[in-house]
Amino acid sequence: MIAACYTTHLYCDCRECKGETSSYINPEFGEYIGESWAETARNARQDGWRISKDRERAYAPGHKIPRRNNEKESETEVTDG
Q1: Taking a C-beta distance cutoff of 8 angstroms, is the pair 31, 9 a contact?
Q2: What is the pLDDT along the chain (81 residues), one digit of tens a residue?
Q3: To pair with 12 at 20 to 30 A between CA atoms, which of 5, 19, 43, 67?
Q4: E strand or H helix that includes residue 59
């Protein structure tokens, strides 16, 4: 018998959680377990997490997503589905 599952750990990449605008350096954390990336990502999105298309960044529910501003910040492409 083979038992297998997929675990996704999400840490919020917003400025507040990363400590860029304050001393708060304790990011929101989410853990999702399923049989595939798609299943865990779907469950996280249902809970309000935002995940970038390249799977490099995640934002906790209600946290601010940085947008491009005069070349000072990198552009963030985030999807719901």
Answers
A1: yes
A2: 666 789 999 999 888 887 766 555 666 889 999 999 999 999 999 999 999 999 999 999 999 888 765 444 444 555 555
A3: 5
A4: strand 58-59
Nearby residues of 68 by Cβ (< 8 Å), 6 or more positions away? 74, 75, 76
Q: Which residues pair with 51 in a beta bridge?
A: 58, 79
Question: Which residue from 14, 17, 19, 45 is spatially nearest to 32, judged by alpha carbons?
Answer: 45
Q: Which two tokens stand for residue 2?
A: 């083979």
Rounded CA-CA distance 10/43 in Å is 12
